[in-house]
Each structure stands twice: as C-alpha cells, then as structure tokens.
Amino acid sequence: MSTDTDRAVAAGTLQVQNLGVRYGGVTAVEGSSFEVAPGECVGIIGANGAGKTSTLKALMGLAPRTADALRLGEVDLARVKARHVVRHGIGYVPEGRHVFGGLSVRTNLELGAHSRRWDDQAKATLEEVYTLFPVLRDMRERLAGALSGGQQQMLAIGRALMSRPRLLLLDEPSMGLSPKLVGEVLDVLQVLRGRGLAMLLVEQNAWLTFEATERCLVMQNGEVVMTGRSADLRHDPAVRRLYLGL
Amino acid sequence: MSRRPLTRSIARPALWVVVGVVLLALPYTVGPYPIHVVDVTLVFAVLAIGLGMALGLAGQINLAQIAFFGIGAYVLAIVTTDAGWGFWAAAVVSLLASVVAGLAVGVPALRVQSHYLGIVTLGLALAFTSWVTNSSVTQGANGISNIPVPPLLGVDLSSEYLYYYLELVVFVAGLAFALFVVRTRLGRRMRAMRDDAIAAGALGADVRVLRLLAFTVSSVYGGVAGILYAGLIRYVSPDSFTISTMFLLLAMVVIGGRQSIVGCVLGAVVLSLAREWLTDFATYAQLGYGLVVVLAVVFAPTGLAGLPARLGLGRRRDGAERGALHDFVPGPATAAAVSDAGPADLQVEGIGKTFRGLRALHEVRLSVPAGAIKGVVGPNGSGKTTLLNVVSGLYTPSTGEYAVGGVRATALGPTALSRHGVARTFQNLRLFADLTVRDNVLFALDRSRSAASAEYLVWPVGVVRDERRLRAEAEELLAEFGIADFADLAPRSLPYGIQRRVELARAVATGPRILLLDEPAAGLNGQEVAQLAQIVRTIRDRGVTVVLVEHNMGLVMSLCDEVAVLANGSVIADGTPEQVVADPAVVEAYLGDSSQLRDLVPDQRTIREAAGDDAEEVRA
Amino acid sequence: MQVTLQTLVGGLTLGAIYALVALGFSLVYRTMGLVNFAHGQVAMIGAFTMSTFYMTAKLPFVLAIGIAVVVTAVLGLVIERVLRPLEGKDFDLMLIGTIGFGVMLEALAVVVWGATGRAVPSPLHTAPLSVAGLKIQTYSLLVLVVALVTTAMLVGFLHRTRVGAAMQAVAMDPEAATSVGIHVGRSNAIAFAIGAGLAALAGGLAGPMLYVNATLGSTIGIKGFAAAILGGFGNITGAIVGGLGIGVLDAFAAGRFGGYSDLVVFLLFAVLIMVRPTGIFGERTVNRA
C-alpha cells in the first residue's frame, strides 16, 4: 500500500511480553513474548490447540488477556478497546475468513474501511484491492457467502487491507484451501510483504509460513517453545516432530 | 449463568417436621377468608409444580399451562353439570382431557424449541381462551356455575377448612411425586436434555419421548389443579384462565426458581399472597410482578431457591481444590460397562456431505475393523469432525452409506445408534453442565427407555431399585476412572483435563461397541495425554473398537493400528501409521509443498525408531 | 366473490400492521439475537402516545404518529439498556425477562391512560373508494402505502447506508464487525430503537382500526410474532409476507368462524410451524458461538 498521509498511524514495533489468555478455567496461552518490527513478517506455527489463534485474538482485544506489555510503538494496546484496534493500524484476517456472507463483496470491502472516512483515498484503496484481487472486482456485486473458499479468503484479506494497516494479523489463510490456492495466497502475501507491510502469520501449513516470513515462533501447549529464522526451521527435525509426531 | 441442580442431598428432616405441623395446624389459626386464600394458593402451588417440571426441569417453554388448568376445570364443570356425572367420575374424564391437551401441545415441541415453542404454546393458550369465551358448551363469558361439591365419605367438602385438607393431601402427593421424578432417572434425563439436547440424544436418551413426557406431566398437574379449583370455587369462567394469569404463573416459577420444585412452590405462595394483599391495587401489583420478573432474570436467574447459593451461603467448593484426579484403574465396572456384544466394525461407503453447496466430505471410504484403534487425522477444516458427526447420526449424509457391526446405520438417528453401541465424545466437551459428575455418568449408565416411564406410576419400587443399582455401578465406575473425588461437583467447576476424563467415563458408561473420540487430547498436558493413551488402549482391549480423530500426531502414531488421512473432505491416505506418515501426499497436506521441505519428510528408519520409542514411553 | 375480495382487502390492511410489528421483531432478533416478547407492548405504548397527541393535543395525525415513533424509539433505547445483560444469552431467560417487561409496560399504560381505552377516529374523512364494486376505505390504502414505503426505506437503509451495512455486519458476525471497527453495542441500540419505532408506527396506524387499550399490545404482538416466525424469523421479506398472511388468515377466520377466529388462526399456525419450522423464507440466525 502507498504511504498513509491522512493520519498518523503508529508505525512502531509490536511488543508482546508475557502474554496470557484464559477462557474460564482453560489456559490457551501462557507467558508468550515476541516482537514484530515495522515491515517484518513473522510466523507462528504449531499444532491445533497450541494457542496461535488465541494469541491473535488477544492482540485484537477479542480474547480475555493479561500481559506485562502489549504495545504497538507508543500505543498501549492493553488499553485500547477491541473496536479501536483497527485505528492504530492493525488489520485482522480471522481464522475461517468470517466474511459478512449476506452482504455483497463491495459492501464487505467498504465495511473494511469503516474506521475511516469514505473519501477519495478510501476509494483509491478500494481500487488497489481490486487490482490486487481482480476476482473481487469481477464478483463485486455477488453475496460474499456465495464465493468459493479461496475467493472468500481473498475477500477477508482485502477487507483487512481496506483500513490501510501497517501490521496485518493473518489467521490460517490456507485453511481448507487446495494446494494451488495456497500457492495463490502465498503470492498475495509476497506482494504485501514487498510493499513493506508488517505481518504476523498464524499457520498450520509450515511451508507457506516459511516461504512468507523471515522469522517464526513455534508454539506448543500455549507457550512459545522455539523461535528462529524461517530458513533454518525449514530443515529442523524438531518441526517435523511437532507436526508428524516423530 | 449459574444454575443450581434440582437434586439436593437430603432436606433437613427437622425443617420438614416443622413445615408439616404448621400446614396441619394452619386451618385452626385463620378465619374464613384467609383459608379461602390459602386454598387458592395451594391450587396455584400445584399448577406451579407442573410448570416447573416442564420449564425448569425439562427446559420446555410451556405457556399453555393455563390451558391445561382451564381444561381440567371446564371439563369437570361441563361433565358434572351438563352430563350430570358425579364429581369424581367427572374428575377422571377431565384429567384425561388435560393429558390429551398436554400431548397435543407437546407435539410441536418435537419440531420446534425455545421462542418458537413459546409462541406456539402461547397461541394454543389463546386458542383455548377463544374457545371458552365463544362456545355455548362453556356458556361463554357467563361461565358455568352449580358445580357440585365433591362427596368424600360423608366429609362436608363445602367447608373450605375441610377442603384445605383434601388439597393438602393432593399437594403433598404431587410435590412428593415431583421430587421423586427429579431425583431419579426420568428427572435426570430431562435435566440432561435441557442442558444439551444434542449430547443427550447422542448418548441414548429419546429426546422426543422426553419432551412429550414433560408436557404430559405438566398437563397432569394442570388438570389436577383445575379439578381442585372447580371443586373449591364451584364456578368457572374465562376470567380465571387468561393470558395474564399465565404470566402470573410464569412469574411464580421464575421468582421462586424455575429449576427447583420447592422454589416453584415458594414462588406460588409468595405471589399468591402478594396478589391477595394488593388486590385493591391490581395495576400496581401487575407493575410490581413485571419489575420483579425483570430484576429476577437479570440479577437472580435462579430465583428465590437459588439465593442462598448466590449469596455464598451453602456449599461452595472449588473443584480443583477439593480432590485429585487419580489414575485410571480398570476394574469390574469398566468391564461391565463395555457391551457384551463385543467390538463392532465400521464400514463407510462413499459418504458425502454438503452444507449449502459447500462440500465438506466427498466420497469418503473408510473401514475400521472390529477391535482396532483407527486414527483419523488431517489439517484443520479437512472434514474430520463432519465425518464423526455423520457416523454418530448427528448429520444425515448427502450421499453414501455406512454400517456398524454389519448393520446398515445410515438412516438411524443418534439415539438409535447409541443403543446400537455407538458412543462418542465431543471436540468442545458437551458435558451436562448443570448435572454433577455423578449424574453425568448415571445418565449414561441408565439404558432404560424413557417410554418405559410408566413404571413411575405402576411400580415405583422398581424405579427405586434400579436407581440403587445404577448408583452402585456409577460409584465403581467413577472410582475406576479416578474421578470419584469430583462426583458431587458440576463439570463446569473442574479443570479441563478432568472434564475430558469425565466425558470419556460418560461415553464408556453407555456400554459401547465402538467409541468415537473427537480430539480427546486437545488441551491436555503431556502427562494427561499419556494417561489418555493408556485408557483408550485398555478400553479397546476390553472389546471396544475405537475411532480417534486427533491432531496430536504423537498420540496417533503410538496408539493407532491404522490411520486414515483426510484433506479437503477426501481420504488421501489410509494404512498403518508408518505407511501414512511417509506418504508425500500426507506430508504435503500437513506441511505444505513436500518437494520444498525434503528435510522434513521422515525416512523409514526414523519412523520405526519413533514408533518404537513411543510405545516404550507409554508402557513405562 | 365480492365478499371474498372485500375480506381480502381488510385482511391485507390488518396484515400490514402485523407486518410492521414483525419487521421490528425480526430486525431486533437478527441484529442482536434478542427475542423481545415485549415488542407488542411497545407498539401499544406507541398507539397510546399517538392517541394522546392526536386526540388530546389535537395535533395532526401524521405529526402525532411521528412523535409517537420518536418517543417510543427513546423508550426502546431504555429497554435495550435494561435488557442488555440478556442479549445472546439463555433463550428461556430472555423470553421470561422480556415477558416481564411487557407485563410492566401494560400495567404502566393502565396507570397512565386508564383501563378503559379509547377509540381513535380515522384521520381521513373521504368516502370509501369504489373499485369494481369493492368498497375500499381510504384509510386502508394509507396503511398499506405507509407499510410499503416504510419497508422500502428500511431495506434501503440496511443496504445503502454505512450505518445500515454496519448493522447487518454486526448481525452476521459481531467479532469480525468489531475487528473492522464497528461499535457493536451502538449498532444494537440503533437496531432496537428502530425496532421500537416500527412498533410505534404499527400501533399508531392500528389506532383508528382497532380499539386502543392496554391489551392491544398482546393482541398485535402475538400475531406479529407469529407472522415473523411464519415468514422466517429475522427475515425482512419473510416478515412482510408472514404479516400479510396472518392478516388475511385472521380476516377470513373472523368472517367464517366469528369469535373462534383466534382458535382457528393459532391452530393453523401451530400446524404450519410443525410442517416448516424455519418459516417460509428460512430463519436468519444470528451468529452465536
């Protein structure tokens, strides 16, 4: 995305220290700490139930959380209401896409810019999203619920981009997609990365994560058990053990 | 929302004696008008017990209770005055009429629930009002007078003092029966159904029969109250059976505490008396009821009966502190629980399932040999849980067939499948949250049919005997599963790992031939996973086939005889763990492009080593 | 034939009222998952408010209805605030709580306006139109037109405005809506206020057709609710079709069965619901995890 001029968005580092998420009696995340620098792409991998999704939800204020520090640059995210997080430059692509199925593709995208004024710049952003995902332009009057899984994923990413974020949180963008579509998702992530957008990518698909990110955190049972450069983890048998139990 | 279970351990006998003496002596202390008020109050108490049974116990929104009441009273009036029958003969007819009405109103409950059921039952109550105000048989708005005094062995029941004792006997009998139901298997089933109808059905409770029974029981109380009312007032008119009376009744049950029968009685007494005191300020009284109901719902959803617990009086125990999770020690109870019929195989032939055009499963073929542990794995969204929901009867497949133990099972519902020996656990734990751990297990152990509940009337001793036997079995099973310390606690108050164990015990208690486990290791720590593996293996050795849907690959690799891998709704690999894990298609489905991740694809040597290691670990 | 058509027109007019009530029910339900059993009583308050401004304060009919809509919408905001703890919760509690609220409103109406009720004169004094031998009251036409225009405006609001689209988004997925910056609580409050306003409009329009008293709420409330369910709960088209359907059914039942019309309508309704529990157009459920 082109640089933002109409408002000062915190472009600082995402700092997370000792994050905990508990639902009732169940601990989903415990004591996890990490950072995402501006323009950096970081992955979180791990088996189902490792606490990946809960981590992202906690950052968005959508899950009950505790943390020693939860900051984006100068902004104390711990004090920001869930509905205001987007204003600080964080876009969120939820697991399972969660597009507004009964609304048209165009309305979905317009709602992505709900936190901003609908001005020329917003319209320009819409054009950029249409350029990035031509299929969405073709389908713009269709109901989002009628799109295929892959198209819905594109829409979910497009919707998040409409707020012109500096940091994009992506939760399992490959879920339920065929290998070919996973490749297309990767292409999109590469383009966004090329534009200097910081990303925190939660994935079960290790290959996609290694391709799209510079660094990875490995989570297990709610804790970060390993961190490393994606290029190194790609050859690490520990990852295999995590996934295949060997 | 905290609800209190209906069963309390034992009510303090001293309190009952005091209450009994007060009730017996009451007529000697009050004047003629107060005794009339008390008589009316008792009628409402009976009515409220009935509503409590449907609404609180079984979770059935029944806004037609007033119609059952009205039918009881009106039929009695018509049959005694028009047909000239004696009071008691007419009473039998009117009770039957109420029950028929109860069954009729209950039928929609088989198809619809919650607010739909609310509006249907309310509509039927209005239909009743429409009938009595217009029909010539009911003499329209004038009502029917000259209902005879019920004769009773020369006792003059036209005296409201003596009538009080008749009512008292009926009320006490009604209360006792209600408490008996609540504390035995029928009540337990109804509460289970209220908490989670899907889980109750999947564990073998015939939810439809239970719903009809709830309405029937409710209508019996309504009919009895109607008969008592007609005998007391000896005049019936539409004014007594309006929708506002229905709402008053609802207020009694809510304010008293809809999930406690005693609470319902309490609510009936409090509001009946309040209504009497405020009779000159009817409008303000109405305003008051409304306000109290709103406040009760927002601030005290458990009503008067739940107040002690909400105020922190009474027992309040934190599950985690109270006991320890012990090791699983299989014994006679586990062995007895497992079906004698032996393990059943599962054959899935080309199952497909489509949700609104979205294909979740496609041509799934799967064979689980009897007595095997078969793993079903795959990435998120690959259709594993959908498959489990199909073979446990919760979803009807769009295409294909499946058979359990050689019997075609595609068209059987979850309840029939449960009786056929299919038991399951749920990914998100569907324990009955308001039943104790013991009751969760008791519910599953009880394999009697709900339709056989006539035993409650015909041979209650049999019910008690069964209950004793079940309780003994449950205690043993709880002990063997290492959860005896938590028997009296609600699952909600327990740590996740213990809840998982309870759910497993509950599934085994149904006496399965095949056990379907949906991610049983999710949220468990390493030690708990090892215990789980041991339990599953033991259950299999006792003669149960196990299907394991799981993400924890370590568990799957060490535990399963065979593994099938699903991706995008299709089976992409099926074989021994060693074969499956070396299959490039599987690696790709899990990790992404396998050609790019050559280092991560395991070779045969590491597989063998790993398999050997894991087996050692678990045995140790 | 003549009589049948005459009944049909009467039924459609009444049905338009039910449809407006059903619309409010459905809007509130699909936005926040709240089944508001007090909705009919809100309509009744609207009818009384209208009658006060129209008959006592002698304001023009349209203005009186306008004031009633605003007053009731504000009342709706208050009710929403009180019932907020129940949103998306246990259905039984919600049902019982809103019924309690309805009982309160009914008693309140008796306190404020008295128990006897009042007949509201029709604001139109023109002679009935004669179309092909049918006599059509001009007021009937007014009601139908208002209902039509209101529905069109509501649909336009939901689909063409930012606030409307945001409200729909909240209904479909509150969490995703929050993540794009939509204020879910505010959206719910607006939905409730609009729902209450629709109820007031229905009540106000019903004034000159039905006798306005405290029980008017339960009469049009239950029929309106039945209409919403029959059409498919939470479904806008369903609310309109269901409303007109119940109205026509009501009119014919009254013609043929006299006082037994409620009996016939509700028995038939029970049967229809069992045949098709999700209504004609299917339920638009809210997302509840």
Automatic annotation (TrEMBL), chain B:
Keywords: ATP-binding, Cell membrane, Membrane, Nucleotide-binding, Transmembrane, Transmembrane helix, Transport. The chain crosses the membrane at residues 12-30, 36-55, 62-79, 85-107, 114-132, 162-182, 212-235, 247-274, 286-307. GO terms for molecular function: ATP binding; ATP hydrolysis activity; branched-chain amino acid transmembrane transporter activity. One of its GO terms (cellular component) is plasma membrane. Residues 346-593 form the ABC transporter domain. PROSITE patterns: ABC_TRANSPORTER_2. It is a multi-pass membrane protein. This is ATP-binding cassette domain-containing protein. It comes from Nocardioides mangrovicus.
TrEMBL record, chain C:
GO terms for cellular component: plasma membrane. The keyword Repeat does not apply. Keywords: Amino-acid transport, Cell membrane, Membrane, Transmembrane, Transmembrane helix, Transport. GO terms for molecular function: transmembrane transporter activity. It is a multi-pass membrane protein. InterPro entries: ABC_transp_permease, BCAA_transport_permease. The keyword Flavoprotein does not apply. The chain crosses the membrane at residues 6-27, 34-55, 61-79, 91-116, 136-158, 189-212, 224-251, 263-282. It is found in: Cell membrane. Pfam families: BPD_transp_2 (PF02653). GO terms for biological process: amino acid transport. Belongs to the binding-protein-dependent transport system permease family. LivHM subfamily. PANTHER family: ABC TRANSPORTER PERMEASE PROTEIN, BRANCHED-CHAIN AMINO ACID TRANSPORT SYSTEM PERMEASE PROTEIN LIVH. This is Branched-chain amino acid ABC transporter permease. The lineage of its organism: Bacteria, Bacillati, Actinomycetota, Actinomycetes, Propionibacteriales.
